[in-house]
């Protein structure tokens, strides 16, 4: 069964700290890996999309990496801010149809 | 431009009733996805449309669930004989086309509560 796992479920850091969120998947034959942010009671906001042929993507203070051979992706957040507090979800596409399998997310709290 | 919209934002219904949830994708997006999210969990795939046709409905939990997209734009998720276990947030997403090359953009979701 193709699964996506995110550990830890929750993370708390002081403002200004650099941090890494982890995502692991069971099938190395993925087509893409997408990171999302979800604020309480809201929908998902796309942060970064990494194609299977890519190793990383960057957007502002965010950098996402993909290592298919080890079944891992990481989301690096530089100089964290209280506004970064949210749940971060990763999702992998294991088919070329684009449907995604999600992890259960890591809830990040950045304390002022 | 406008993002993905979903109506209603909240729906409370009694067990056994029929409900319809609507999704308006981003204009020009041919692919549309429905997911269901329970509290504390990631979204679970329900169904994927490419144009008007359901290309993959493998995530629909049973035959009480049905979805349509008759003109290749707006989609409606229909749930018959609702059960308390159907309570969840139903999310819709669209992308420029099907396949892994394009990001999925999500709507705000419809929170369904079955009493």
Description of the structure:
The complex is a heterodimer of chains A (112) and B (115). Chain A is globular. Chain A has 112 residues and is mostly beta strands. Chain A has strands at 4-5, 10-14, 19-25, 32-38, 44-51, 56-59, 62-67, 72-77, 86-93, 101-102, 106-111. The mean pLDDT of chain A is 94. With 115 residues, chain B is an all-beta fold. In chain B, 0% of the residues lie in helices and 48% in strands. In chain B, strands 2, 4, 5, 6, 9, 10 and 11 form a seven-stranded mixed sheet that branches. The A-B interface holds A 4, 31-32, 34, 36, 42-46, 49, 51-52, 89, 91, 93, 95-105 and B 4, 31, 33, 35, 40-45, 48, 50, 55-56, 59, 91, 93, 95, 98-109.
Layout of strands and helices, then pairs:
The complex is a heterodimer of chains A (112) and B (115).
Chain A: E1 4-5, E2 10-14, E3 19-25, E4 32-38, E5 44-51, E6 56-59, E7 62-67, E8 72-77, E9 86-93, E10 101-102, E11 106-111
Chain B: E1 5-7, E2 10-13, E3 19-24, E4 31-37, E5 44-50, E6 53-56, E7 65-68, E8 75-79, E9 88-95, E10 105-106, E11 110-114
Parallel strand pairs in B: 2-11
Antiparallel strand pairs in B: 1-3, 3-8, 4-5, 4-9, 5-6, 7-8, 9-10, 9-11
| Backbone structural class of chain A | mainly beta
Shape of chain B: globular
Number of helices of chain B: 0
Number of strands of chain B: 11
Strand count, sense and closure of the main sheet of chain B? 7 strands, mixed
Strand tally of chain A is 11
Largest sheet of chain A: 6 strands, mixed
Radius of gyration of chain A in whole Å, from Cα?
13 Å
Overall helicity of chain B: under 10%
Coarse shape of chain A: globular
The residue-averaged pLDDT of chain B reads 95
């Amino acid at each position: 069964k193709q699964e996506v796992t995110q550990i830890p479920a929750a993370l708390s850091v002081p403002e200004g700290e650099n941090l890494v969120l982890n995502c692991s998947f069971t099938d190395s034959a993925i087509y893409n890996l997408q990171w999302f942010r979800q604020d309480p009671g809201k929908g998902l906001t796309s942060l970064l999309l990494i194609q299977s042929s890519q190793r990383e993507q960057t957007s502002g203070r965010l950098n996402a990496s993909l290592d298919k051979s080890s079944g891992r992706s990481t989301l690096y957040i530089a100089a964290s801010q209280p506004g970064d507090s949210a749940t971060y979800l990763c999702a992998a596409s294991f088919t070329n149809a684009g449907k995604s399998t999600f992890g259960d997310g890591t809830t990040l709290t950045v304390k002022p | 431009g406008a993002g993905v919209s979903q109506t209603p934002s909240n729906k409370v219904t009694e067990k056994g009733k029929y409900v319809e949830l609507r999704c308006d994708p981003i204009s020009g997006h041919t692919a549309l996805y429905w997911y269901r999210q329970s509290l504390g969990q990631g979204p679970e795939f329900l169904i994927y449309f490419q144009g008007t046709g359901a290309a993959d409905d493998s995530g629909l939990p049973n035959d009480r669930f049905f979805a349509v997209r008759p003109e290749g734009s707006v989609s409606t998720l229909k749930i018959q004989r609702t059960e308390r276990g159907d309570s969840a947030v139903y999310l819709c997403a669209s992308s420029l086309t099907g396949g892994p090359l394009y990001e999925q953009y999500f709507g705000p979701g419809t929170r369904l509560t079955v009493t």
